[in-house]
Write a structure and sequence with these properties.
about 375 residues, alpha/beta, nine-stranded mixed β-sheet, 9 helices, about 25% helix, globular
Length: about 375
């Protein structure tokens, strides 16, 4: 690569690959962080995409040209799901930080080639944004501080993407959130072992006539049994994680977390036990009544992740929440691939037997 252009002190260069729905959300976060005291650096932002769609930031038609001429400190991979591997392998030799949208790849991509291309990067994080919910960190801390052991957990993670104009690899892009959250509630070294999976495919997506739109699975996580249901045809957004834990005294402790309800970043956690026929609340975190800062509605958690990635790229500051690093992301993708390959699938369901008229929406709340 060419020598990096000379910048003023404390300037970070960020390249966003993809400037559609996901890329625009990242751009909002980046602009809000440029020059902010919590970052301590000014940002120069450019983007790479197949076509130029905006004139307010520099554009590169070629990823290689962008890496050579713009020399970014951080690359955000926000292209459509099926193009992730193309961009990630195109980063071969890049030595900065990579922040990538989930899932890592599609089930048809060469994971070894992706891993090899990214080994030289200074850092990597997959956008598993619910790690940055205050409810997520509060529950993990309560479980750790009170030495609770997971007995049973169930997650429901769904939303309506019927006739969504954005291409997708299918519901593996949705179930990854619940799998990530469940894995963090078990013993540190426990592997999530899927016991069975069933699914439904349909023509819900512009990506094809038989894309996997929903999946239900059962699994073991150490001694615990977990289950999850995820769907892109859920009609209404529903994101919940319900758990039962064993306390050191043998009693049961319950926890219920609801995410992004009624709007994005509105989360609620309640932890309780039953005592003398009544519920006793042990911990509660509620962000539902909190107004997002101006211009940041729907990107509060994403902004926290983006800030952590920028601080690491800038001065190697450890993140407030552990990144989903490259090895962990590869393991998660292999798990998703196994689920997709082994699920007993019914369908396809036909939403549009006579064809469809796709409408490109701009409502982030609906699209999310």
């Amino acid at each position: 690569m060419n020598q990096r252009p000379t910048d003023p002190p404390d300037t970070l260069r960020v390249l966003v690959a993809g400037m559609g729905y996901a890329g625009s959300r990242f751009l909002t976060c980046l602009r809000s962080l440029s020059g902010a005291p919590e970052l301590g650096a000014r940002l120069e932002i450019a983007y790479h995409a197949r076509h130029r769609t905006r004139e307010d930031i520099p554009y590169f038609a070629s990823l290689r040209t962008a890496l050579d001429e713009f020399a970014p400190d951080l690359v955000v991979v926000a292209v459509t799901d099926s193009a992730h591997a193309e961009i990630l392998t195109g980063l071969y030799g890049y030595q900065g930080f990579v922040l990538a949208e989930k899932p890592l790849t599609s089930g048809r991509d060469d994971l070894d080639a992706v891993a090899d291309a990214l080994r030289g990067a200074s850092g990597f994080a997959l956008d598993l944004v619910e790690r940055y919910s205050e409810t997520t960190t509060a529950l993990q801390e309560y479980v750790r501080d009170h030495d609770l052991s997971l007995v049973r957990a169930h997650a429901t993670w769904g939303k309506d993407r019927i006739n969504d104009h954005r291409p997708t690899v299918g519901v593996t892009s949705e179930v990854i959130h619940s799998l990530d959250l469940l894995r963090q509630l078990g013993p540190e070294s426990a592997e999530l072992l899927v016991q069975g999976a069933v699914g439904v495919c349909s023509d819900f997506s512009v990506s094809g006539p038989d894309v996997l739109d929903s999946v239900a699975l059962t699994a073991r996580l150490g001694d615990a049994v977990v289950s999850t249901y995820s769907s892109f045809t859920n009609i209404v957004r529903q994101r919940t994680v319900d758990c039962a834990f064993r306390a050191p005294d043998g009693g049961l402790v319950y926890a219920s977390t609801e995410y992004d309800t009624p709007v994005w970043d509105a989360d609620h956690l309640r932890v309780w036990k039953r005592e003398n026929g009544a519920d006793v609340t042990l911990c509660e975190v509620d962000t539902r009544g909190r107004e997002a800062p101006a211009g940041l509605r729907g990107v509060v958690k994403l902004r926290r992740l983006t800030a952590d990635a920028l601080r690491y790229a800038h001065r190697r500051q450890d993140p407030a929440v552990p990144f989903a690093g490259l090895d962990e992301s590869l393991d998660l993708q292999r798990l998703l691939n196994r689920i997709e390959a082994t699920a007993r699938v019914t369908g396809p369901a036909r939403y549009f037997p006579g064809g469809r008229a796709v409408i490109a929406e701009a409502d982030w709340e609906r699209l999310g």
